[in-house]
Specification:
Elements (H helix, E strand, L loop, with lengths): L2 H10 L7 H9 L6 E5 L7 H8 L5 E7 L4 E6 L2 H13 L2 E3 L2 E7 L21 E7 L7 H8 L5 E9 L2 E8 L2 H11 L3 E3 L2 E8 L14 E3 L41 H13 L9 H12 L26
Antiparallel strand pairs: 1-3, 1-5, 2-3, 4-5, 6-8, 6-10, 7-8, 7-11, 9-10
């Protein structure tokens, strides 16, 4: 039976006037199946909730969640596991997020490609769409790669913000492993009690990344150069940062945002001469000397000082 037929059968089960108790009694007369039908689900139910409800009885091999109908189909690895699950919940009330739910055998013998986007053969979608809710801490490419690479090789990741929410597209190698990652991680928190992942399959077949940067990465091309956008450095408040040629003893105090103690320290260094910095490498000494004299052909006001002998030179900053 195809997916449309399955949904029609589910719709027929929702005929007005037929109570859940009567539906459960009708289900008791049905033949056992390794596919279970779960009813009365709360709107916030995730696939992970469904998996957690039945995974104690056997490996979950597929889930089809229909949130709008408050129903789900879940497939276990064997009919015996499904029978054991149903028998247990006949005497124990099943619940998801403190809401009672009903579990019965489905009329379907198995979840096929029409029911489940990923098949056991690995044929199906491999791109996952992740929405991060309650985002308290930053979620980086490396964090996402670490989480999802536990399930399969991650090929590409793209992150973006839409409707004020941090989102990501993650392309994996195998659809069955992508489905397992989705099944396990949907509804889970990246950090303690925050950064909750809502995961679904994307309609995209593959991701195209032209350059690697902090928002997107193609892990099949680790040497791909990062895309660089050239922007003139700006100080807070929108004032352009002065170039090295503009940094002189007389102009330090006029630089926006420059603390008074930093001005005093730099003027002291300039007055004493760069040669007084004991242990400074010749290359960096040349750079600092050029900065003092305003002759460095560099566009950056930052000077790198390395291998400084702290015992040979001490800078005292006044408050």
């Amino acid at each position: 039976m195809d997916g449309v037929g399955a949904l029609k059968r589910l719709a027929e089960d929702q005929v007005p006037g037929v109570s859940d108790a009567k539906k459960m009694k009708m289900a008791d007369n049905s033949q056992p199946s390794r596919v279970l039908h779960v009813r009365s689900l709360p709107a916030s139910t995730t696939e992970f909730d469904i998996q957690s409800l039945v995974s104690a009885f056997g490996q979950v091999t597929g889930v089809m969640l229909m949130r709008q109908r408050g129903q789900a189909l879940v497939e276990l690895e064997s009919e015996a596991a499904a029978v054991q699950c149903c028998n247990f919940y006949k005497t124990t009330q099943a619940a998801i997020r403190e809401n009672p739910v009903q579990i019965q055998h489905s009329r379907h013998a198995e979840l096929t490609m029409a029911h489940n986007p990923a098949s056991a053969s690995g044929e199906g979608p491999t791109v996952l769409h992740i929405i991060v809710e309650n985002m308290v801490y930053q979620v980086t490419l490396d964090v996402l790669h670490t989480i999802f690479s536990k399930y399969d090789s991650v090929l590409r990741i793209i992150t973006f913000t839409k409707n004020g929410q941090f989102q990501a597209l993650i392309e994996m190698t195998d659809s069955a492993k992508a489905a397992q990652a989705k099944l396990t991680l949907d509804g889970q928190n990246i950090y303690d009690r925050c950064c909750t992942m809502k995961i679904d399959f994307s309609k995209m077949a593959t991701l195209t990344i032209t350059s690697n940067n902090d928002r997107q990465r193609d892990y099949t091309k680790p040497d791909q150069a990062e895309g660089v956008t050239t922007v003139r450095p700006m100080m807070l408040g929108g004032t352009p940062t002065p170039t090295a040629a503009q940094v002189t003893a007389s102009s330090l105090a006029s630089i926006p945002g420059m603390p008074a103690h930093s001005v005093s320290a730099l003027q002291s260094i300039m007055a004493g001469g760069a040669a007084g910095l004991g242990g400074l490498s010749p290359a960096n000494l040349s750079t600092l000397t050029g900065l003092v004299g305003g002759g460095v052909p560099s566009a950056s006001p930052v000077v790198l000082v390395s291998n400084l002998n702290e015992e040979a030179y001490t800078v005292t900053c006044s408050a």
